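Open question from group meeting: does this chain pack into something compact, or does most of it stay loose? Before anyone orders reagents, we agreed to write out a predicted structure and look at it together. Recording both the input and the output here so the notebook holds the full record.
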Amino acid sequence: MSEEEKKPPVRPKPAAKKPEPKPLPPSPKQPVMDALATTLKEKFGESAVMEGYINQPNDHLCTLIISRENWLPVLQFLRDEHSTPFDYLQNASAIDYETHLEVVFHLHSLEKKEMIAVKVRLDHENAELPSSTALFPAANWNEREMFDLMGITFTGHPDLKRILLPDDWVGHPLRKDYVAFDKEV
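Structure tokens returned:
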């Protein structure tokens, strides 16, 4: 037996334990979020705000999830009556989470230089929401894009038709359950 064969096998050193992540410190915007959620619940009822949270990685963005029934009234309140008028629609998009769809509006207050995200959850089978184009004209093309690619119907939209895909396209390609009609695509 050679010297190499006589040596006991070298065991790898145990991996160092990873330190547990430290909890994030409270957001400086939490009082603003709490006050806004309270105001909306008082004005529109407890069911108006389904959830509210601070998106800390996104510059402590106040984020509200609104009930479908209160979508337009809350948007109008935030635009017209709130102490911080969110008068500019910066972005509108939709997300498919497999369990539900979510429409997301990023509103900006030009006067106070503040932002807020307002979301609403929709079922895949009943993906319908009132159009916000009367409140925010910039939502026109964004809602058409969400209709075209995600299959969300915006009732009351002035010209709800496909914007990117041909009129005869089958389905909505950004949905996770989308199956291409033409297997060559």
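Observations to bring back to the group:
The domain at 27-155 is CATH 3.30.460.80 (Beta Polymerase; domain 2).
The radius of gyration is 24 Å.
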